[in-house]
Design brief:
Number of domains: 1
Strand content: 35-45%
Bound molecules: inosinic acid, magnesium ion
Shape: globular
CATH topology: Rossmann fold
Strand order of the largest sheet: 4-3-2-5-6-7
CATH architecture: 3-Layer(aba) Sandwich
Structural class: alpha/beta
Largest sheet: 6 strands, mixed
Length: 181
Amino acid sequence: MSNQNVCEKILYSNEQITQEVKRLGEEIAKDYEGKEVIFVSVLTGAFMFVSDLVRNVSLTSYIDFMQVSTYENSTETSGNFVIKKDLTSSIEGKDVIVVEDILDTGFTLYNLVEYIKSKNPASVKIAAFIDKPARRKQNISADYVGFTMEDDYFIVGYGLDYAQKYRNLPYVGVLSEHLYK
Ligand code: IMP
Ligand code: MG
């Protein structure tokens, strides 16, 4: 099936994304000058963001992936956190940047950062492609943000999915209502 008409509007074009990711990469390279960085990317949504980001960071870098799921439930404020794919290498004493697609309620990153900290890295920061502050339920913020989205849209593309679909759109758009209603 064609990817045409998947979005009712485009929020961030491929050109805008390229520009913002470059800005983030350069900022990170400056902040970590003289250091090595381990990027821990969250599968699957951040795969495109991390691949573009690391190409814009001119430092010796390592890339690792984790896959997790958080099921929100009313009895536990942290939700139910499950690690499906763990780190491949040790991060002890290293400078870690966690790379995520969206910071939404904050449950995923809150749990992930707590887990990463338990492995005794030298430092931990967060790079989020999109920050959606309107829905935040955990007190957590990102150190590097590509775009801040004030509206509570459900968006797809550039790694973000709806039912595992539309990750390959080269832009970010608002999912057309007819696809989920
Ligand atoms: P949270 O911060 O724990 O609520 O979870 C954020 C995760 O929910 C992200 O990593 C995305 O996978 C997913 N997510 C949140 N908002 C959207 C959206 O608008 N489109 C696609 N996925 C989303
Ligand atoms: Mg995700």
